[in-house]
């Protein structure tokens, strides 16, 4: 009370809502926070929000070290011999492929895959109002779906309980990252990130260039050992002279099977404008007879599908990691949790009453 | 019982409600908003003006996402430079987004603000909705 009467009016506070003038002047003295610092998903941010990674970045360090070590061994042990006996272009091609692979990998890992920001409390309330027709006693009503027509095909949109919004078509919620991702393909542990609308082209160029790189190194190492044996030595002697080649052979041999297979699979997906998620679930498989239950997103032309997926316009990041938090944004975070509380307080109150009764009984006893 | 009243307290209009214009997915995953006129705006705005605003926004987003020679060229160039070109160049989509932001600001100043409404740029809501904030009619005047 005393504070209200004798408070000196701070001219700067006039630009702020008077209801929270005191709190806000205190907050203004603090460093303004960026939106990535209050991001609700399970992601990690570096370089002040410029770089985004999944919290479980899986085996990304293993992937990087496998690539770097194998290429390092190649350049150190195989290239000198091959340059002398064949051509200087071998390390040049190897170098270009290596740079391309590493850049694509880093780009895939550090790019926002197309994360959809969660609904604001007002939006969530509006959606709830539209769905909630009868007041049900249970907190979790059955999963809500909305059917829409896309290119004369019925598509079901599911309601995401975490993000509090109806998921757009082709969007899926990744449980590892706790985010809805647009055009969700899969969560790749090797890359340590989800693969979605914004980084699918980087992922595709990564696996294609990696296929070329592993095949190239494999071929060069085989050539290297063959050339050594042609000079009159046995294979064992050749290997003893260049033991690193064996390591490279083993790594490349096992990688080639999986990487080439993956490249082929994703080439098929790109050509038919499908995602891994849709393919695995069989969303558009024509097992329903002659009904046109085909993919509604395809352009019915392989070239157009490829161009649209890989060379289409680059959509922007929707989560605005580096934007500054406006001061009233801090309050919605509190009210969001408040929306969650009411259904539970009914139960808690009943529980508390019982506890109170128990205590009163024990006191009087 | 001394209370400090700032000038803002008397001039700041209170938010009455918010209307959300949802996405229209009938043509696929391209960014397009429904042109259905919300009933809450009937007293404030002409149906035709609203439809014109939404239709212009839809056209701008279609321009941003258009598949054509220019976007393919940009995509191929980016691929050849191992996507490092995006570090120094603004994408076509980003340029159109700036155009959209200018258009929304313009619409707010000319049409929506005089009627006590405010359009929020959809990019700030993850391109999910066009949020229209309806402010309390100031002519009623509240002493709060």
UniProtKB/TrEMBL annotation, chain A:
Report the principal subcellular site.
membrane
The record's top EC class is transferase
Topologically, how does it sit relative to the membrane? Multi-pass membrane protein
The EC number(s) this enzyme carries: 2.3.1.225
Q: Which organism is it from?
A: Xyrichtys novacula
GO biological process terms, semicolon-separated: protein targeting to membrane
Q: Which InterPro entries match?
A: Palmitoyltrfase_DHHC, PFA4/ZDH16/20/ERF2-like
Write the protein's name: Palmitoyltransferase
TrEMBL record, chain B:
- Alphabetical list of PANTHER family matching this protein: GOLGI AUTOANTIGEN, GOLGIN SUBFAMILY A, 7 (PTHR13254), GOLGIN SUBFAMILY A MEMBER 7 (PTHR13254:SF1)
Q: Which intervals hold domain Golgin subfamily A member 7/ERF4?
A: 19-131
Q: Which GO terms describe its biological process?
A: Golgi to plasma membrane protein transport; protein targeting to membrane
Q: Which family does it belong to?
A: Belongs to the ERF4 family.
Q: Which UniProt keywords apply?
A: Golgi apparatus, Lipoprotein, Membrane, Palmitate
Q: What does this protein do?
A: May be involved in protein transport from Golgi to cell surface. The ZDHHC9-GOLGA7 complex is a palmitoyltransferase specific for HRAS and NRAS.
Quote the subcellular location field of this record: Golgi apparatus membrane
A Pfam family annotated for this chain is: Erf4
> Per its UniProt entry, which superkingdom is the organism in?
Eukaryota
- Membrane-topology descriptor: Lipid-anchor
* InterPro entries per UniProt: Golgin_A_7/ERF4, Ras_palmitoyltransferase
What is the protein's species of origin?
Xyrichtys novacula (Pearly razorfish)
Q: What's the protein here called?
A: Golgin subfamily A member 7
Q: Which GO terms describe its cellular component?
A: Golgi membrane; Golgi stack; palmitoyltransferase complex
């Amino acid at each position: 009370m005393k504070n209200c009467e004798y408070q000196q009016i701070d001219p700067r506070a006039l630009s702020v809502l008077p209801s929270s003038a005191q709190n806000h002047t205190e907050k203004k003295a603090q460093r303004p926070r960026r939106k990535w610092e209050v991001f609700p998903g399970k992601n990690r941010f570096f370089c002040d929000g410029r770089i985004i990674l999944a919290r479980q970045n899986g085996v990304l360090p293993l992937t990087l070290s496998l690539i770097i070590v194998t290429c390092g061994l190649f350049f150190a042990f195989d290239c000198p011999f091959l340059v002398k006996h064949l051509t200087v272009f071998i390390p040049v091609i190897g170098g270009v492929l290596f740079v391309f692979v590493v850049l694509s990998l880093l780009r895939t890992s550090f790019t926002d895959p197309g994360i959809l920001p969660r609904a604001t409390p007002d939006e969530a309330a509006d959606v709830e109002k539209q769905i909630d027709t009868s007041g049900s006693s249970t907190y979790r009503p059955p999963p809500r779906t909305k059917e829409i027509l896309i290119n004369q095909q019925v598509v079901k949109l599911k309601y995401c309980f975490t993000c509090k919004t109806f998921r757009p078509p082709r969007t899926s919620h990744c449980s590892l990252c706790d985010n809805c991702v647009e055009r969700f393909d899969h969560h790749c542990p090797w890359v340590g990130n989800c693969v979605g609308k914004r980084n699918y082209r980087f992922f595709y160029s990564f696996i294609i260039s990696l296929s070329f790189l592993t095949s190239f190194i494999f071929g060069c190492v085989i050539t290297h050992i063959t050339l050594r044996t042609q000079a009159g030595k046995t294979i064992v002697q050749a290997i003893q002279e260049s033991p690193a080649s064996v390591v490279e052979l083993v790594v490349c041999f096992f990688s080639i099977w999986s990487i080439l297979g993956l490249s082929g699979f994703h080439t098929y997906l790109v050509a038919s404008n499908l995602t891994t998620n849709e393919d695995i679930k069989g969303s558009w498989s024509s097992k329903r007879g002659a009904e046109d239950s085909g993919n509604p997103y395809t352009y019915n032309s392989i070239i157009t599908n490829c161009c649209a997926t890989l060379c289409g316009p680059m959509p922007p990041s929707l989560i605005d990691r580096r934007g500054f938090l406006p001061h009233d944004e801090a309050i919605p975070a509190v009210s969001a949790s408040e929306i969650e509380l009411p259904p539970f307080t009914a139960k808690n109150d009943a529980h508390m009453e019982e506890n109170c009764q128990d205590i009163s009984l024990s006191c009087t006893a | 019982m001394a209370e400090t009243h700032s000038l803002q307290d008397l001039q700041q209009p209170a938010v009455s409600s918010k209307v959300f214009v949802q996405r229209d997915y009938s043509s696929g995953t391209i960014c397009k908003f429904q042109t259905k006129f919300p009933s809450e705006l009937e007293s404030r705005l002409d149906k035709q003006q609203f439809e014109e605003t939404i239709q212009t926004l839809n056209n701008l987003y279609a321009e941003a996402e258009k598949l054509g020679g220019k976007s393919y060229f940009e995509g191929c160039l980016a691929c050849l430079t191992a996507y490092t070109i995006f570090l120094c160049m603004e994408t076509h989509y980003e340029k159109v987004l700036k155009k959209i932001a200018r258009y929304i600001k313009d619409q707010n100043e000319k049409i929506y603000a005089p009627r006590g409404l405010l359009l929020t740029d959809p990019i700030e809501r993850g391109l999910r909705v066009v949020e229209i904030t309806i402010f309390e009619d100031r002519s009623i005047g509240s002493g709060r």
